[in-house]
Design goal:
Strand content: 5-15%
Shape: globular
Strand order of the largest sheet: 1-4-5-6-7-8-9
Order of helices and strands: HHHHEHEEHHEHHHEHEHEHEHEH
CATH architecture: Alpha-Beta Barrel
Oligomer: single chain
Number of domains: 1
Bound molecules: coproporphyrinogen III
Structural class: alpha/beta
CATH topology: TIM Barrel
Length: 343
């Protein structure tokens, strides 16, 4: 179907656009009272993820309420470990918890390679969303990067250090690569399923990129992201590797279209490391949205000025936090649209 607003896709391919497209990581849920209303009627987050009609509804909410230039399918990166055989729960105020973790060859042997059938509820949510979006804006599909998923599968929960996962890389690199391979194959199946169902672009979230030193990052993470980028041929691929400062040059050399920057990555320096070809995404400090409206606007303009008008998708440097005001997020979005269309 023809998209009425395809700014994001044109910018991702490096084409000129009338203005800078904008969306916000973690825009679906968290900050919208309309989301919390739907969520409060259910047993929890996982039920919402697994109910396609409701997942579609909360996916579209930020398009209607905030005016973003793309929807991102409401799901979680942790559906992959679940489909591979490690179910999780979402503990109120604490985050994800896995009852089993991957410790040895026996655990690894029991893991399945996920396919689109095991994630049919996400594929169905994409079908419903596409129908209801009716071509208004593109739909972003996503998955976690294999390294970030490895962190949760080995650790079993969130962590500041992910020391069990990091220990595994040093004590059993061969085993680590086998697990990363299995996650990568699952992720490729999953993303291909999302694209077949109608996702117009996909983002790979490497939220825990920043805890690895550069040499290990290239070997245990970027290699697998690169494999994914090579396998997804029909739509643009965005790679967001939070904190991967030392690996920006190598990220610039893989077969992706867009590189996401976090808020500590200097824009000019990142452009010179990544090179002129790729589109950059980001990167205002999310905490700016705690400031007054005037500051939100002036910081947004500063960001736009540094990226310039071409080859940029405006976003925050990481997701919005749950206690942020929707009006501040909208102020950021409106200012990107207004200011960049005057450039
Ligand atoms: O962008 C979007 O809004 C689409 C949906 C989306 C969610 N999670 C929904 C969600 C996306 C893209 C994610 C990605 C995700 N999930 C990441 C990568 C991005 C990042 O922030 O670094 C990670 C690391 C996770 C794992 C995860 N999911 C954690 C640690 C938690 C608990 C803490 C938190 O972030 O709220 C979740 C839960 C989660 N995922 C919620 C939502 C809306 C909150 C659940 C609730 O409503 O109670």
């Amino acid at each position: 179907m023809e998209l009425k607003n395809d700014l994001l896709l044109r910018a991702a391919r490096g084409e000129k656009t009338e203005r800078t497209p904008v969306w916000v990581m973690r825009q679906a849920g968290r900050i919208l009272k309309e989301y919390l209303e739907i969520r409060s009627k259910l047993s929890g987050f996982i039920e919402l993820v697994q109910t396609p009609e409701l997942a579609a509804e909360v996916t579209i909410q930020p398009v209607d309420i905030l005016g973003v230039d793309a929807a991102i399918i409401f799901s979680d990166i942790l559906v992959i470990p679940e489909a591979m055989g490690l179910p999780y729960t979402m503990e109120e105020g604490k985050g994800p918890l896995f009852s089993n973790t991957v410790k040895n060859e026996a655990d690894l042997g029991k893991l399945k390679i996920a396919d689109e059938d095991s994630l049919g509820y996400v594929i169905e949510a994409i079908n419903v969303t596409k129908k209801e979006l009716n071509g208004r804006v593109p739909l972003i599909g996503f998955a976690g990067a294999p390294w970030t998923i490895f962190c949760y599968m080995v650790e079993g929960k969130g962590s500041k250090t992910f020391s069990h996962a990091r220990k595994m890389l040093y004590t059993n690199p061969v085993f680590s690569h086998k697990l990363l391979d299995k996650i990568t194959d699952s992720t490729i199946n999953y993303l291909k399923g999302q694209v077949a169902a109608g996702a117009n672009i996909v983002q790979v979230f490497d939220s825990w990129a920043g805890i690895l030193p550069a040499g290990q990052y290239d070997d245990f993470s970027l290699k697998y992201i690169s494999k994914i980028a090579n396998a997804i041929t029909d739509v643009p691929v965005i790679v967001f590797a939070k904190g991967a400062y030392a690996s920006r040059k190598s990220i610039g050399s893989i077969n992706c279209d867009v590189v996401g920057l976090d808020w500590n990555m200097d824009i000019k320096e990142s452009r010179s490391l990544i090179g002129p070809d790729k589109t950059l995404q980001g990167n205002m400090d999310p905490a700016t949205l705690y400031a007054d409206f005037g500051t939100v606007k002036s910081e947004t303009r500063k960001m736009i000025d540094q990226f310039g008008k071409a080859k940029h998708i405006a976003n925050l440097g990481h997701g919005v936090y749950p206690d942020m005001e929707a009006d501040k997020v909208k102020c950021f979005i409106d200012e990107v649209k207004e200011y960049s269309s005057r450039l």
